[in-house]
Amino acid sequence: MDTFQMGIGASFSMLLILKMPRSGFSGRIPSSLCKISFLQVLQLDGNQFTGSILDNLYKCSYLEILDVSDNHLSCRIPRSMGNMSSLQVLDLSRNNIFGSLPSHFNPSSLVLVYLSYNRLQGSIKNAFYGCSKLITLDLSHNFLTGTIPEWICSLSWLGYLFLNHNNLEGEIPKHLCNLYQLRWIELSHNNFSGHIVPCLRCTGGSSVIDPEYEGEQQALVFSTKWMTYSYQGNVLMLFSGIDLSHNKLSGEIPPEIGALSMIQALNLSHNCLIGPIPSTFSNLSEIESLDLSCNNLDEKIPPQLTQLNSLAVFSVAHNDLFGSTPKRVAQFATFDESAILSFVDCHYQRVAMQQYHHHHC
Ligand SMILES: *[C@@H]1O[C@H](CO)[C@@H](O)[C@H](O)[C@H]1NC(C)=O
Ligand SMILES: *[C@@H]1O[C@H](CO)[C@@H](O)[C@H](O)[C@H]1NC(C)=O
Ligand SMILES: *[C@@H]1O[C@H](CO)[C@@H](O)[C@H](O)[C@H]1NC(C)=O
Ligand SMILES: *[C@@H]1O[C@H](CO)[C@@H](O)[C@H](O)[C@H]1NC(C)=O
After folding, report:
1. For 330, which of 38, 216, 248, 337 is 20 to 30 Å away at the CA?
2. How many CB atoms lie within 10 A of CB 177?
């Protein structure tokens, strides 16, 4: 739209906030935007912008919130973004951003980073090293390779780590246990191997930013230099869970996982786990969804699991479990046994499953 191009000019040089989400704009994001010397908030999500983010982005040195998600931007992450010292929210998700993450991409003020659903490649390297205020890091749905870097444990406020749907490998690092604020870990659909670390934490601790409620919607409230600004985050900030599904994790499920009494969802399905379902799982008092299907778990389902009053989804299908299902009392009375605790399926599928495990594990 031409009006957008024309509207940005010297006369707007004191503009602090430019919010034009889902407004049908196309073409390139005008580089004259960075002539607006005090621009703090730029939200252009849900348009049809193409080309690069902004060539002269480093001139936007007061920018605190940059949301150009859900466009058709096709470019690398500009290196100059690394020295945007005020940047707190970066949302480039749902574009065609390609190339590798800049090796020292560390605007130290970053709080929320969303780079999901792009075409990023290469390893995570040192990107975000030193972003000590980071609460959300979403790199999911890309083509990232390599391992989870050790420095991630220095991000002591990290609450939401989404690395799912990439090509990451190696072990889930023990140093994740140092992250006391971690509430939601999504590592599914990668090539992680080794054992599940016993001390994975989901404390549900309070974060530095208070989520503010507006009905069902939640927003993060930032106090910037001149104003208070609320940003509508795109994840449910109070949800807590662990999804390690669809990897090559082996060994037994550590009983310590049962101590994560805050988690609402645990998905360990589609791995190579063996041994029993720990009876400590009866302490997962908030759990609503528990998926352990498609592993090599054996023994009985611990009868104590009937204590889980919040459980709405429970699947242990395609394992080597035997014996009777837990008494159909409490929450378990509501489950459709043939669909969810499907032993019949397990036996039928045994040959197929052995092939699955042969190829998968
Ligand atoms: C930021 O980085 C860009 C490109 O890397 C550089 O041209 C610019 O001078 C840098 N700005 C500051 C303030 O360091
Ligand atoms: C997964 O990792 C193993 C080594 O641990 C490797 O042999 C295999 O090719 C990887 N698979 C994929 C899909 O990356
Ligand atoms: C668990 O993960 C698998 C694979 O990622 C997925 O297909 C399944 O729907 C998940 N289970 C639940 C209960 O969300
Ligand atoms: C559940 O937690 C309580 C208190 O933390 C502990 O005493 C008990 O042993 C746990 N139960 C199981 C089955 O681990």
Report:
1. 216
2. 14
Nearest bound ligand to the CA of residue 144: 2
Give yes or no for residue 203 CB within 6 A of ligand 4.
Answer: no
pLDDT in tens, 278-293: 999 999 999 999 999 8
- Expressed in angstroms and rounded, the spacing between residue 83 Cα and the centre of ligand 1 is 6
258 lines ligand 4 (CB under 6 A): yes
| pLDDT tens-place string over residues 57-90 | 878 888 999 999 999 999 999 888 888 888 999 9
Pocket of ligand 3 (CB under 6 A): 188-189, 245-246, 267, 269-270, 289, 291, 313
pLDDT at position 125, please? Answer: 86
Q: Which residue has the higher pLDDT, 104 or 113?
A: 113
Q: Whose CA is nearest to atom 5 of ligand 3?
A: 245
Ligand nearest to the CA of 193: 2
Per residue in 124-169, pLDDT (tens digit) is 988 998 899 998 999 999 999 999 998 888 898 898 899 999 999 9
Boundaries of domain holding 175: 2-360
Number of folded domains that form the chain = 1
Atom of ligand 4 nearest to the CA of 258: 14
pTM of the model: 0.85
Q: Residue 49 is part of a domain; what is its CATH number?
A: 3.80.10.10
